[in-house]
Amino acid sequence: MSYLPFLALLAGAAIAIQATMNAQLGVLLKSSLLGTSIAFLFSCVFTVAAMMLSIKQYPHMAEIKSVPLYLWFSGGALSAFGVSIFYYLIPKMGVGSMMSYALSGQILIAIIASHFGWFDLPVKPINIIKVSGAISLVIGVLLLNWEPSYAY
Fold it and tell me: Least packed by Cβ within 10 Å: which of 70, 116, 136, 148?
């Protein structure tokens, strides 16, 4: 089996995690636009590996110090990873296959993150309905990407 669908699932998982982290950063800084700007600044640093970092100090120093260290850089790193893998895989897999695997990764990670309340999310426990939905999702993605060995 090809490793490309696995990479697509990882890309989807990275996007789900970084979105949650960046939302938390925006909440802690009291500005979703500032949180997003910082995340994409760090994305640029990780992808280009040659940027200078400048942070505007809109929030008060106490608010800045209250933000956990990982929220300053990890969302940007996950964003850079996810976007890079998207651009790498789309020409190889096609956008439909790529997005179906990537969205599945996002949904599966979101279910787990909600279950455990990661990043101060409201806790929404996994139940039989969610497990059934996740299984159906995986089966659906496999069917969407199934290519019969015969021509029509």
Answer: 148
